[in-house]
């Protein structure tokens, strides 16, 4: 109840960002659960093309995604990165989505997703990010 009260006390612009982030976070999570990745990519690409002229404060969006991902089951780094990338691009910000893999132990692989803006990681930062090799398949997600 306290969290709802805090949310309702936010300025309208921030509430709108939080609601957009939550709706898209849930949609991406469901999409990745129900649809092939290529279909989710295509749908998000279409959504990114619908530009919004409203101002989006990146720090507010990233904070919202970080907090809200705790309330969406299995909102992994991929879900958060796809959501952040889509919202940033939709609001006209340059953003680059990375999917990377790293070797773990004997022939094991670990994957991670993150979003960069002007070379700075805005979501998905981890201490050992340098050990992940970005996959080229993400190139199609730039637009």
Structure at a glance:
The chain has 143 residues and is an alpha+beta fold. The chain has 5 helices and 4 strands. 48% of the residues lie in helices and 17% in strands.
Structural class of the helices, strands and pairings?
alpha+beta
The succession of helices and strands, N to C, reads HHHHHEEEE
Biggest β-sheet: strands ordered side by side in the sheet: 3-2-1-4
Number of helices: 5
Taking Cα atoms only, what radius of gyration do you get, to the nearest Å? 15 Å
Strand content: 15-25%
Measured distance between first and last alpha carbons = 40 Å
In terms of per-residue confidence, which ranges show pLDDT below 50 for 5 or more consecutive residues?
none
Q: What average pLDDT do the residues reach?
A: 89
Write down the overall geometry. globular
Describe the sheet with the most strands.
4 strands, antiparallel
Counting DSSP E segments of at least 2 residues, the number of strands comes to 4
Helix content: 40-55%
Q: Which characteristics define this entry?
A:
single chain, 143 residues, alpha+beta, 5 helices
Structure description:
α3 runs parallel beside α5. Helices cover about 50% and strands about 15% of the residues. The relative contact order is 0.14. The longest helix has 23 residues, at about 10-35. The protein has 5 helices and 4 strands. The protein is an alpha+beta fold and about 140 residues long.
Provide the fold topology.
Blueprint: H1 2-9, H2 12-34, H3 37-49, H4 58-68, H5 77-90, E1 96-104, E2 108-117, E3 120-123, E4 133-134
Antiparallel strand pairs: 1-2, 1-4, 2-3
């Amino acid at each position: 109840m306290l969290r709802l009260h805090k949310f309702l006390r936010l300025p309208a612009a921030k509430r709108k960002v939080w609601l957009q982030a939550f709706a898209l976070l849930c949609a991406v999570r469901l999409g990745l659960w129900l649809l092939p990745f290529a279909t989710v990519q295509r749908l998000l690409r279409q959504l990114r093309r619908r530009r919004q002229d409203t101002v989006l404060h990146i720090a507010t969006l990233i904070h919202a995604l970080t907090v809200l991902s705790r309330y969406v089951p299995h909102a992994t780094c991929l879900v958060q990165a796809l959501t952040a990338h889509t919202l940033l691009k939709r609001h006209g910000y340059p953003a680059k989505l990375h999917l990377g893999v790293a070797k773990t132990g004997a022939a094991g692989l670990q994957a991670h997703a993150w979003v960069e803006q002007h070379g700075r990681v805005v979501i998905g930062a981890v201490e050992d990010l340098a050990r992940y090799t970005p996959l080229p398949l993400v190139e199609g997600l730039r637009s």
